[in-house]
Amino acid sequence: MDTSQAAPLATELDVVIADYRDEKHGNDLLALMDHYARDPYGGGEPLSDVCHRELLARLAAFPGAFSVLAYRGDVAVGLSNCFMGFSTFVCKPLVNIHDVVVTEAARGLGVCTRMMEQVAEVARARGCCKITLEVLEKNHPARAAYRKCGFKPYALDEEYGKAEFWQRYL
Fold first, then answer.
1. In this structure, are residues 162 and 126 in contact, taking their beta carbons and an 8 Å threshold?
2. For a 10 Å CB count at each end of the chain, is N or C smaller?
3. H/E element holding 79?
4. Can you tell me the distance from the alpha carbon of 26 to that of 23, in angstroms, rounded to the nearest whole number?
5. Between the CA atoms of 147, 150, 151 and 152, what dihedral angle is there, to the nearest 10 degrees?
6. Where on the phi/psi map is residue 88: left (φ > 0), alpha (ψ -120 to 50), or beta?
């Protein structure tokens, strides 16, 4: 592979904190969420109508929510939706990355790394102790990207095993 071609693509990447009230940011966020929702790792179904109608307003109104958008030129190629949380053991805030989307055409170009750097910058500015995220066990490309960014499975003590992310629908 000619690495001289990979570097210019990475330098063309612009990473910004989304403005939920900005029309372009909003349209790009919804398009990327729909792209993710349609992917097998995102459930394989289009983003719901209610999300298309209400997601931007609800994110804008949700305390501590922020999103990172990655652009190559005018084209949105990545998204990370984040929410503030709190670590009771450290007594400090944290950031949970809830969604990570990189378009198929932009995978392997450093988009995830740049978005994670931006999330870390926001987390440090907000006095956070850590950044958390969930990843599907068999989503090997995402797991590799997250490890490259310094993430690892969580365990207080290896004797008791790794933490698992569980859910209960209401």
1. no
2. C
3. strand 75-87
4. 5
5. 70
6. alpha
| Token pair of 25 as six digits | 């940011």
Sequence letter at residue 27:
N
102 residue type, one letter: V
pLDDT (tens, 9 = 90+) of the chain, 170 residues, equals 333 344 444 458 999 999 999 999 999 999 999 999 999 989 999 999 999 999 999 999 999 999 999 999 999 999 999 999 999 999 999 999 999 999 999 999 999 999 999 999 999 999 999 999 999 999 999 999 999 999 999 888 888 888 888 889 99
> Which residue in this structure is represented by tokens 């729909």?
34
* Of residues 69, 61, 82, 84, the one with CA closest to residue 27: 69
Max CA separation in the chain (angstroms): 51
Residue 102: name the closest of 8, 7, 10 by CA. 10
d(Cα 13, Cα 76) in Å, to the nearest integer?
10
Residues 136, 152: Cα–Cα separation, whole Å: 13
Q: Which residues pair with 82 in a beta bridge?
A: 66, 97
**Both structure tokens of 95:** 């950031």
For residue 29 the two structure tokens come to: 């966020």
